[in-house]
Amino acid sequence: MNSSYIRCNPLKFSNYTSYSTRTGPCAISTGYLDGDSLLDIVVANKNDTIISIYYGFGNRTFESQKLYNTAYDVAVRHMNNDNKSDIILTYTDSNQIAVLIHQ
């Protein structure tokens, strides 16, 4: 069998930095949450239904997690056309979702 293909270099990454989370991190999303144009990370933790927010410093490092007692899954999107990132949460125990609008 003769086939043509383009050879690709494998992905390469720089050294990584790890950050502590709560028990059972199960979902992750990113967005600009605090208005400083630096990317932030949101992690949902399934074992204690707490989300962790890591505010970015802009140099590929993040502040220690800030904890918010909420939900099971998380997404970050612009929900109301104000160019600010909002957080959408799911609650499995109550069959609900919540939209946290950035003020």
TrEMBL record:
- InterPro entries, from UniProt? Integrin_alpha_N
Q: Which SUPFAM superfamilies match?
A: Integrin alpha N-terminal domain
Q: What is the name of this protein?
A: Uncharacterized protein
